[in-house]
Amino acid sequence: MNSAQEKRKSWRLWQSLDRQPFEGDPSTWPVSSASAVTIGLDFGFAQDHSAIAVVMEFGWQGRAIHAVPEVIRFSLQTPASDVVDKTCRVVQKWTRPRGRPQVVVDARSNIPFFEQLIRSGITPVPVGVSATAAEVHAAEPRVIRVPVDGRQRPGLIYHLSRNQLVDDLNAKIEARALQITRVGDAGFLRVEMSALEREVTKARNIRYTTPAGGHDDCLMALCYALWGIATLPRYRPRPRAVTLKPRFTASAWT
If we measure between CA atoms, which residue out of 43, 99, 47 comes closest to residue 72? Predict the structure, then answer.
């Protein structure tokens, strides 16, 4: 099978996204019913957009279904402080009674931005990712420490394979285990997914590339969120200590 045939196969796979397995737009699904929520954030500079993708996980007939209720693409050259502020509001919007969502942040060449998010305290476990051309994900994260209010707060940075991230997204689409909203900036995400090209190298390795002048910001934000919800430990807030008042009865005085 030549490269052009591989690209056409990938195109058909992206088109299968329109065969939605559930009724209703995911933006209307109650976050309180989700078993987990993760937010992916791809940070862009002057030539790339910053983008946010929210992923909720639901259990259905013994398998996990992932819904994307919100996608946000920022204008070019949006200040980093505005991106942080918007991310904080998105976290508040999609917080469940069980706790805040996990945020997975693009930290490739963006360490100061990642540190800024750590200082904001919006995520229980600061996790950054760096997508590379490697064939597989790195096994262990790199730990950095950021001074916050006189203390050293740790942050984790995982080096991930871009190809593996997109392969995992492909697998969810093919299994009809992903449903994406059609409101807001989700149209940008669908355009990026449809334009992505799948090539097979002479060494029989698969590469995903974006056409010249195209973007993959929303796509990568979604990949980060899906990786996080599948890989990272589920955060559960500690239960508050309950002090019971002693019950006095007449027998206690005899």
Answer: 43
- Centre a 10 Å sphere on the Cβ of residue 191 and count the other Cβ atoms it contains: 14
Pairing of strands 151-161, 127-132: parallel
3-state SS of 27-41 is HHCCHHHCCEEEEEE
Q: Could you give the CA distance from residue 208 to residue 214 in angstroms, rounded to a whole number? A: 13
Where residue 99 falls (left for φ over 0; alpha for ψ -120 to 50; beta otherwise) is left
How far is 165 from 172, CA to CA, in rounded Å? 11
Q: Which domain holds residue 208?
A: 3-253
Backbone angles phi, psi at 2, to 5 degrees: -85, 175
| CATH at residue 123 | 3.30.420.240
pLDDT tens sequence across 79-134: 988 998 999 999 999 998 888 899 999 988 778 888 888 888 887 777 999 988 78
Q: Which residues of 130-141 are buried (b: 16+ CB within 10 A; e: fewer)?
A: bbeeeeebeeee
How many structural domains are present in the chain? 1
Joined together, the tokens standing for residue 108 give 């490739």
The 10s digit of each residue's pLDDT in 3-48 is: 555 555 554 445 555 555 566 789 999 999 999 999 999 988 778 8
Q: Where are the alpha helices (DSSP H) in the chain?
A: 3-15, 80-93, 111-120, 162-174, 186-195, 217-231
Residues 6+ apart with CB under 8 A from 220: 40, 42, 51, 106, 131, 162, 165
